[in-house]
Structures are given as C-alpha cells and as structure tokens.
Amino acid sequence: MKARASDVFVGRARELEALEGVLDAARTGRGGTVLIAGDAGIGKTRLTAELSARARDAGFEVLLGRSIDLVGTELPYQPFAQALRPVGDLPRADGQQFRVFENILGLLTDRAESAPVLLVLEDLHWADTSTLDLVVYLAQYFDDRSVLLVATYRADEPSSSERMLRLANGVRRSGSAVLVDLGPLDRDELAALVAAYDVPPRATANADAIVVRSEGNPFFAQELIAAAGDGGLPRGLRELLLQRVDRLDQQARAVVRIASAAGREVGYALLRAVALMPEQDVRAALRQAVEYGVLVAEPTASSFRFRHALLAEAVYATLLPGEREEIHEHLAEELARTDAAAPAELAPHWAAAGRAAEALAASVAATREAVAVAGLAEARTHLERAISLWPAVANAAELAGSDLAGICAWAAELAGETGEAPRAVELTRRAIDLAGLRDRRRAALLQVRLGEYLHGVGSDLSGLAALERAVELAPAEPLPDRAYVLASLAGGLMVAWRHAASARLAEEALVLARDAGAGEALVRALTVRGASHVYLGRTEEGLSDLGAALRLAEEIGDRVGLDRVYTNLTDSLTMLGRLRESVQVGRQGLEAVHRYGIDSAVLVSNVIEALLALGEWDEADALSTAALRSTLASFPYMLLMLRADLEIGRGDFAAAREHLDSALETLRPDRGLGIYDVDLAELALWERRWADAADHTNGALERIGSVGAAQLRVWFCAKGLRAQAELAAVARTRRDAAAERSVLDRADELIALARRAAEDAASVTPVGSAWFGLADAEYQRARGVVGPELWADVAGRWADLDRVPLTAYCRWRQAEALVTAGASRAEASIPARSAYEIAVRIGAQPLRRELELLAELARLRLANPSAGIEPTEGLDEVLGLTGREAEVLTLLSRGCTDREIAVALVISVRTVGVHVSHILQKLGAANRIEAAAIAHRMSAPS
Fold it and tell me: Which of 306, 468, 870, 882 is most buried (CB neighbours < 10 A)?
C-alpha cells in the first residue's frame, strides 16, 4: 500500500486553534513568532503545511525555507535564502550583521504592505548560527507588522539542544512569541489515523499493534501502516524506515542513495547528471520513489526531497565506504562544473569525497563569502575545516592565499567577534607558534590580539603578560605599529585599574604616534591616557584627551577607536557623577557608531546605567528592551545585569532572577568585578533575605580583591552594611546576643573598609563620599542608633548628584528614623512624601510598598496611600508569641488602634492593652511603632 503523510491530518486541534489565532492577529497587523518543537516524526512539518494551506486561503503570502543537514551546511542564513528566493537575493552588508538583519526586516515589512506574510522555517536544529540570531532579532519586531514567523525544530536532537534553548529564550523575550510543544497523539487520534488509510484486510489485525508500537508518533505510525500492508511489522526503527526503500527496484534505490548524499532537497538536473544512467531510467526511478512515498516532488523548484529527514538519514547510513566518497565526488564535480553551488555547499562534498585540496580551497572561498554577508560564525566554521585539512594539502598556502598562521589568526578574529573568546585564545596561540619570531612585527601584533582575547576570558594577568611580550617584540620601525602596541599595553593596564602606569605608557605611545602620523594609534593612546587621567583625579586633562580622541576618530573614520572613545567617555562621566552629560554623550555615541554598523553593547550599557541612576527608568526600559533584541553583543551579560537592576527596582523579582541567570552564560570569571554579586545582594535585600544579601556583598568584596577600584569598594560596603543593619535588628528581636555581636563585628569591618575606600576615592569623584555617607547611616542603623539627621544629610548628597532612586531610599530611611525618634507625624511625612512621589513616578514598587506600610503604621500623609496591605503571618512561631498576641500584633502592624483591634477580635479594649504590653515586653520594643516594624521585618516576603 502507499501511505502518504499529506493525505491525512488528524488531531492537533488545540495547537491548530492557537496557530489560527496568531494567524488572525497577523492579518490585522499584530504579527509574532511561533516556535514548534517536537521529536522527529511527531508532525511538525504536517502541522505547518496545514497552517500554510489555511494561510494561503486567507490571502497570506507564504514563504518557506528549510535547513539542511546530512552532509552539513555552513551557508549563513540558508533557510532564509530559500524562503526569500521569490522576493529577491539576500542583502549584502559589508560584514555588518545588524545591517543584514535590518534589511531583511525591511524587506519583509515592505512585502507585508500588500498582503500579510507567513514565513515558515523548518528544522532550525540544523540551522546556522546567523539564522538563529536573525530569528531572535525578527521576533522582537513583528508585533506591529502583518508578518508571522513559524519555525520548527527537533526537541530530541542532543547536538543542538543548547542552541535551541538559547533560541527559545531569545524569542520568548519578544513578548509576542508562542511556543508550541508537540506531544504524541493520543490513542484515539492514532486509531483515527490508522482508520483513515486503506489498510489491506490481512493488515487489519495489526492495527492495535500499530497504535501501541508507534507511541503516538504519526510518522512512525504511517511507516508501520505501510509495513503492515506488506505482511508484517519490522522490529527496529531503521528496519522500519528502510523497508519502504527496499520495495524500490535497483535503479530507484541507486537514485535515492544519490539524493541522500546530496541533501534533503536536490535538483532534477543534478540527479540526472550524477546518476550515470539514461534519462528515461532516471525519470522512471524518481517516479517510483515518489509513488512509494520515499521522495516528494517539488514541481516549482524542479527538485525532489525526502518525505522525512529520518528517512534520508537512514538511507545515507547504508552507503558503503568507497561508495559514499564516490557519490560525493560526482556531486561536487557536477556542482563545480555547472557553477550551481556556492563554495559553502561544495566544501562539505569535497571533504566527504576525500578531495582535501578542493575542500580547503572551497572552505577559504566560503569564508570570504560568509564574511561579506556578516555570517561570522559560519565563516569561522569554514576556516576551522581548512585548518583541519591543511596537513593533507601540499600547496595549502598557495590555495588559501595565506600561510597557516594567517588562517589561524583570521579564525581567531572571527571567534572573538562571535563571542568564542576561549577558542580565539587557542587559535591565536597556535598562530604565534606557527609564525615564530622571523617577523617580529607580526609576532608582536599577534601577541596584542592574544592579550585582548585573554582579557575576554577573564585571564587579565596572562593578558597583560601577552601585551608586555608584544612590546618586547615590536621593532622600533615602523613607528605606527610600535605606537599601536604600546597603546595596547597601556589599555591593558587601564582595564586592570593600574592607571598611573597606563598613563605613563600612553604618553610614550602618544609621542610615537604623533611622530609617525599614525591616526589609529593616536586615537588609542589619547583614549587610554584620557581615561586613566580621569581615574587618577586629573579630570579636566583626561576629559580633554578624550575629546581630542573623539574628534580625531571621527575625522579619520576610525570606527573601532570611535566606539572605544565613546565607551570610555561615558564611563568616565558616570563615575564622576555627571550623569546627564553621560547620557547626552552616550546618545550621540550610539548614533555615531550605528552609522559605522557597530552594535556596541558596552556603550549602550553605559547609557542605561546612567539612566537608571538618574531615575529615568522608562527611557532605560525602552533602551534596554531594544538592546536585548540583539544577540550580537560581545558582552551581553552587561545588558542582562542592567535589565535585572531595573526589574529589581520595579519589583519584578522573577524576571530579574531570570536575567541574572542568563547573564552567567557570558559573565567573566571576576563577575564584573563583583557587581554581579551586588546585584544578587540587591535582589536579596528587597526579598528580605538578609543573610543571603550579606553573603553576596562579602563575595563581591572578595572578587574585587586588591584592584584599586575605591569607588566600587565603598559602594559594596554600603550594600553590605544595609544587610548587616537588618541582621542586627533580627538578632536584637530574637535576643540573640552572640548573633548580634557577630553582626556588629562584621559591620565594624565594613565601615572601616568603606572609610579607607572613600578616602582613596575622594580626589577622584564625589560619588565615593555619597556612598560613604550611606554606608555610615546604615552602620549607625545596625548599631541601633536612630539618626534622622544622618539620612537627611546623605539624601541631600544624592540629590545633588541627581541620583534620584538613592535619594528616595534615603528619604524613606529618614522618615522611618523620625517616626522611631518620636517626631511629629507632620515632620516625618515630609521626607516620606518626597520619597513616595519619586517611587510612584519611576515605578519603584518595592520602595512604594515600604513607604505605604510606614505611612499606615505611623499615620503619615502620602499623596496617594494605598490600602489592602497583607497581614503578617507566622509571628507566633518566629517571635515566641501566643496565637492571640500574634493576631493583635498583626492588626497593630496595620495601624489599628486598640479599639479597632478590640472590635476585630471581639475582646475588650483593656484586654488589647494587656496583650500589647506583653508583646512589647517579649519583643523588647520601646513602643507600638517599633513593635510593628519588627513584625514587618520578620514577616515572609510577599
């Protein structure tokens, strides 16, 4: 019998309903992205085919592209190229990947103006990296366009599981994604599938066995139905798949074996040429393969493909040694003769055929073509193949146009640009070994690259050693190279926070660069000297250097130097507390580097950081969202950590935790000099996990080690002291003197460390003084000192620096201290109201909740206090209270009077007073306000 997957569609009603919903939304301009995941044979292609048919009926233009495996493909954007063939060629963008992305988005947007578009991409588990990046990018922009992207991938493919997880996470961040996980068909659906086929009477008895053996997989069920028609059920999957092929005659099997080596889809002309049989025999063989459900004809493309990839894999696995090489050789020769394939398609065939020379030449050519369309990951794959083939090719250097050291250095550069710094280090070291010291100039420049890649993997000391070796090797002439190498070492010293040594070396590089008229070396030297001078407290000199570097970089078109200058300038301005200036310069910088096709994650991170500090959270939100749409960043952890900062401030703790977890994938070993740990501490503080917060800040201080980053150290101490203040209050509440002493000992250590750091930072930035003021206020709170004047002073310091969120935090603490000190409600309301207005405006929900609670407890007046604060729970166990005392404390913490408590609990006012006295005695609280604050502190986070 002849079973055809396209004949029958059963089940999947729920999935199809969901897909039709997003299809309807796309028709009205609300597009999106759908990822369909499932095991091989589960029905992904059949589901998308059904959706495509319905989309065409609804007036959609349907574009289809498939990823190809089998012999492997490293063609960048291969499924997009196939899908967009009716529209035009893929745009080229001179190696600027985001330009390619923008152009394809524009192409699809324009196409959707005349009719909605359904773009289907199948088998993304085989897709190239650039395709996956492009899918994530497009997913962020389809929500306001009449474009629906539907992509399928195998969930059971171990080799691609990590890449598919990153794809799903990236698409999910778009907010307009639908993820469909196709599970097995149920028994009734499988029974319906079996019943829909014309099963011969002798096979009917096997129907139940088919339902059971297929385990809900429709493709397996169809193959079992076909096998049952031949009189029996095979034992294994491979036997099952090949049973269909075994029914073909000898010529048809030969053509099918050629097709399995060619790829899942192969043109008729290629099959005819390689089959080495009369054309009428080729046609007869193909007809038989189609009729028996092995191949599917694609009339519009004049090609054939296997009905399922599993079938193609099974056939390819039957090719014998020698036979396989011969088929690949014939395929490669015909493709090369007719110029019908790009080098990226030819190279795997030549390699599989054992023709190393041709494979190497094609691999290098494929690299150049991939770079031209910014397929950098695919370009590196081609070069890696060339490197592996090199020993087998006598004239490899002649074919490649470079020696092996040059190829390794090129591959390292591509690895560095695609976030594979460890591989970049390996390749550069190999290039250094191969190149030797015959050409000292070349050796020095390779050492510079090695130093930069080592910095990328967090090996800062080794990186500096490589840069120092570069200076040793660099000859006195030519001057431009010598100046560049010196400036590179100065830059390495700068990022290692050795600013004095960096400035001295940059000065030397500057002299050489000026003498040689070496523009790029001059830009680098000015940038490094300028940034180092700023961090040494020579602010105006440093900013002058950075300004000069900026003007020169723009004048000579030094795009890499321009990005570096803007990055260092915005960092310097933020460090100096000149936040609004930093944002203004950063915006200009983003526009400038965008013109050169640079996607600068560090620069955009600097702008977001300044916006967050200013309290311009809506703009930071928009910029962060846009930046995370790109997966091209070399330092994505920065963007993810800043996104988490925003989410912590706004109370979306689950999202913050997710982004912090994602940041770990690319985080340097020093964890951002401990800033990552401070982010974890901030999250723990707002979740009232005081001990965790203390551990995280301790970890941050350990990671920063002996690095001379005084302004970071005092900041970390302030966060740690906030945690210690809360732990001290808990210890006092529990009357645990030993715990309190331990906490206060640590607080003493932290305030001493903060004081030394603040003194070191005083000549550099006013921000250090503000952080120490905050650290000291938290320290006094840990000791139980009520100091509203301390909080008022530090709030003023932050206000002077335009640090709005920190100002609001300190105003909250000031109001809290005033209440505890017994100040009037009117007096305490002033800072509380100021903090509350900020919290509402910027969307700081955790701070807003704290202020509302304080206002309700102390009867303070806020602009718009909210009601409905959740009562505390479990206080009887935590604080050693009776059940009734816990109920009284819960109502007291909500600001209820004794009379209101009496009414609520149906007891007398006098009894309430007795309970309150017992509560104050047990808690060691001086008054009702302090008791309520203890109850709040000891309650579980909401």
Answer: 306
